[in-house]
Here is the input.
Amino acid sequence: MVIDTPAIQALTSLGVAFTPIRTARPQSAQESAELQGIELGQLLRTIVIRRGVDDYVFVLVPGGRQIDWPKIRRHLGVKRLSLPDADEAHAATGYERGTITPFGASTAWPVIADATVAVPQIVAIGGGAHGVNVRMTPDDLLRVTGAVLVDVTRPADDQG
Here is the structure.
């Protein structure tokens, strides 16, 4: 089965080693990890965050973790950040919510990867369509996205 999305096309053109994975459309990160046979922490969500008017960043957040807003504001040197609504996120990335990935996005926004992204040997990140992910090494992911590795998340159950 051939999987063809802008993300897959972008990764192919970069010549990076990756494995595309197609599953049923999951209802949660936990279900996506289970369908792929990986640990939750290996699954990365791409969150688009608005820094200002027409100014966004992609944040790679491992499953089981959530953005720590004070940490990311401190890293970016801003007092205010926000999450765009679904239409704005689509306009900024070219992807609908739930399929957003830095690969093949309509604009190559800066990428911040949580420090824990570097821990597993293999990670899975959205492949640009519902139920499509790509697996690759964290090193390749960081290299091809130009991501900055920073501690910007906390465990999802931490109310801190």
In short: Strands lie at 19-22, 43-52, 55-62, 65-67, 111-114, 123-126, 132-136, 148-150, 153-155. The chain has five helices and nine strands. The mean pLDDT is 94.
